[in-house]
Design a protein that fits this description.
globular; mainly alpha; 2 strands; 10 helices
Amino acid sequence: MDQTRLDGILHFVQASEALKDTLRSGLTSEGRQESTAEHSWRLCLLVMLFEKELEGVDLLRLLKLCLVHDLGEAISGDIPAIHQDGRDKSAQERADLIELAEPLPEDMRADLLALWDEYNDAKTLEAVLAKGFDKIETMLQHLIGRNAPDFDYRFNLDYGAAQTARHPLLRQIRDVVDHETRRRVAD
């Protein structure tokens, strides 16, 4: 392997480590803020576990989309959904990803950006699934997290509705998550 290529890849991986310290608003079951890296890991785990229900889906591509979807947050951090106020954060995340990927060889930068664009555009089956599973993972975290007594579980009932409505499996999982959310609201 070319040494420059190797160095670029390793530099990128080291810079991506920032996702371990990029905190999200969701809390773990022990009550600490989760990191973007933890969210992305569990998202990939969730997708992997539904492999047999995803006939005809390119699982490797789906997992790649899940891995890259929040990489840009290593630069500017996460903006919780409740604070987005209708803003389109995708332009900033894309710019951050370009900055983060700078050390990578040109072909890898192009591949990474193409995956992120595919996720963002959500026109392929794999991107639709990645976006839907991303929302579901977040809602599942809200259900298990040690949240403040005034946590607004009702927010989950509308959160990601458009993304989770685009595939039958996502809708089925969403029904279960919504049922659990309604139980939390009632408590």
